[in-house]
Amino acid sequence: MTGIRAGLADAPGEVDVLVVGLGVTGVGCALDAVSRGLSVLAVDAHDLAFGTSRWSSKLVHGGLRYLANGQVGVAHESAVERGILMEVTAPHLTHALPMLLPLDVSTRRREAAFLRIGIGAGDLLRVAVRTSSETLPRPRRLSATESHHLAPVLGSGVRGGILSWDGQLEDDARLVTTIARTAAGLGAEVRTRTRAITVHGRGATLRDELTGETHVVAARSVINAAGVWAGDLVDDVELRPSRGTHLVLRALPGLRVALTLPVPGERNRFLNVVPQQEGLVYVGLTDVPVEGEAPDVPEPTEAEIDFLVETTSAALAHPLSRVDVVGAYAGLRPLLRADGRTSDLSRRHAVLTSSTGVVTVVGGKLTTYRRMAQDAVDAAVARAGLVAGPCSTARLPLAGAAPRTELARLAAASRAPRLVRRFGTDAGLVLASAREVSGLTDDELLAPVAEGVGVTLAELVFGVTHEGACDVADLLDRRTRIGLVPSDRSLAVPAAHRALTLAKATVR
Ligand SMILES: Cc1cc2nc3c(=O)[nH]c(=O)nc-3n(C[C@H](O)[C@H](O)[C@H](O)COP(=O)(O)OP(=O)(O)OC[C@H]3O[C@@H](n4cnc5c(N)ncnc54)[C@H](O)[C@@H]3O)c2cc1C
Q: Does the pLDDT at position 340 exceed 60?
């Protein structure tokens, strides 16, 4: 039933494009290439969204940060891609996030004016790239009373604030999974548990991690989208990652907006406190160089957790304590070392063609994945002389996408608005296919899998039948994000086993 599968059984031995890595960049490349009419095999050593793509802040950035650094080109590209994601390709997986920048008694007038001008410039960019103010409202100044109304957790020193809007993802791993499902729906072969051992411009040796067998695949072009591990596959790219850590908190009382909090004593550095749809709050971000090899799953350190707790507490009426922290996660940003120099790729992406002919695409953001994929596939097509159509992904809605008005109508009429939020117009398909596979009633399929956890059995079953999940970790850590709170994860393990058993008979 699914075009996303584990291992290499029945995989093609020859394709136009082989993509290595199924983070947002790799699945973006698979979708771009298959939608140009090319045959595609896309693989990951582990699973969809196993790497950095699931450890992000889950924001769709409009590029304000880059404007502040004078990087107008990068900011413009972010704003364009944010508009495409929110208005065309993924309205179901994105929404407008109100963000409050509190100004307190210690904020100097000049500083406040500078922040207001920056946020105003960010809005001009939104207008310039034609993202509607219905999608992202205009920023405005708030009084102290209004600021406290939106964020009662703030301390008493607040004398006002600036309210602006940016994009928020429903979930980063869900975006990756949806892009992969869209690519598979157009005919791409998407294989998890498949590691590239060696790659060159005309193919690769792949290892099926389920069986341990190696397969030689011929490809007219090879795209290396292995993120911070890209340098392990080609000699002429070297990456030095830096770790960014987030805390996961249960909801802060009354918080109705995200908070942008300055880091005391540092210029132009802020923490974000970002409420999520189902009661959690993420707080980030640190920036710590990683020595040695990039680990598969980076771990936050105690010092990073303390830093985030203390910095956030400084702005709150009641300080956080470690017991408020119900989870923490870390992701690796790439820093590229090339020609003896280093550059920070977390701002701009790079497409590099190695002497062997492999096209490597690294850096960038979730927000700009589509443009990164376009640039990488353009480079691969040109190098291999492939006959391919033009890139059309800016106009290609992802699976389940629909205009916001239609999504709102669907959610209002649905017994499971959560499914509409995560699958858009495919919410009905998720429930119907889970019903067919399991023989269970809608009540059983739509009940939360554990107390305090909104995830349903229907989406776990769908994860196995339609999204290539093959074990408990795929279901709890990537198809859903229960794993971000370890105590919730433990409660949900039996449901994941049940979904795997129910779906087993259906999936080869
Ligand atoms: C802390 C943090 C917060 C961020 N927040 C945001 C944000 O809010 N918004 C935003 O737009 N961007 C954000 N970003 C940036 C964004 O998350 C990354 O740019 C993006 O996820 C990188 O995706 P990728 O596909 O290039 O890499 P990855 O997601 O790391 O994917 C690489 C994949 O390659 C696979 N792989 C590696 N080696 C092999 C091999 N030999 N064979 C097969 N597969 C292999 C890995 O298993 C992995 O799945 C953030 C980044 C960090 C670090």
A: no
